Amino acid sequence: MALDLQAxxxxxxxxxxxxxxxxxxxxxxAVGETDPVHLDLDAAAAAGHPDLVAPxxxxxxxxSSAIEQALRDPAVGIxxxxxxxxxxxxxxxxxxxxxxxxxxxxxxxxxxxRLGMGFYVLASRSTNQRGELVSSGTWTQIxxxxx
Amino acid sequence: MKLExxxxxxxxxxxxxxxxxxxxxxxxxDFNPIHLDDQFAQSVGLPGRILHGLYTMALLARxxxxxxGGPEHLKRLAVQFRGIAVPEQEIxxxxxxxERAAERVxxxxxxxxQGKAIIRAATVELEV
Lengths: 147, 128
Known about the structure:
The complex is a heterodimer. By secondary structure, chain A is α+β, with helices and mostly antiparallel strands. Chain A has a five-stranded antiparallel β-sheet. In chain A, a hairpin with a 5-residue loop joins strand 4 and strand 5. Chain A starts with 14 loop residues before the first strand and ends with a strand. Chain B has a domain of 83 residues: Roll (Thiol Ester Dehydrase, Chain A). In chain B, a hairpin with a 2-residue loop joins strand 3 and strand 4. A five-stranded antiparallel β-sheet of chain B has the order 1-3-4-5-2, with helices on one face. By secondary structure, chain B is an alpha+beta fold. Chain B is built from three helices and five strands; from the N terminus they run βαααββββ. The interface between A and B is medium-sized, with 35 and 32 residues.
């Protein structure tokens, strides 16, 4: 399985995501969050937040278009049908609140072959409208060879 | 709760209902048919629709933030996805403190379904 390494180090165009209250509620319910700071404005205010707080794993929502762009780029050359999500790491900074604008840039951190499979590692960095780093992510995708 | 090495955080048990993958697909934007369509999933060698790995990671994150009392405590989470997780079977998450240095707590966690690990090498960093 010869991997095309031309995309290694490539930085994609940043994507900006506008965080909405109802999207936070929808995500929080989908993963069963019970903390009312994700669901109820009064509870968020009582905890000192001016709007609903996104759960930490909401990172996948505001990163999704930036990650999708990288995964589907022909220069990266991922065989989408054979893709499995191998590993994931996130680090979080300040909380993300409804009403914020989160800008994510994705780079191709690594492409290598191991055990006959292709490993594609994408790195994401997401900043809020004040320029603070709210999260960084390491997304490891594994592409199995076609039989 | 004193977060010293060896202390276990509250266990989380969740049984995703049959609509869990549809709800997570809509919330996350990941509409890969392996999570939504039993026939398609079987055509690529899976037993049927499977859960999104990032959904199981979100349950793991929730186990931590609920135990600590808020989302601001979770600073880092790293996992490897292994095996296959399915709807309508209970998922059990156990977390145990490994290290404590001032305000930082390192936790190691297991995420299992039907006695098998669905996430490996889960490492959590919490700020207290």
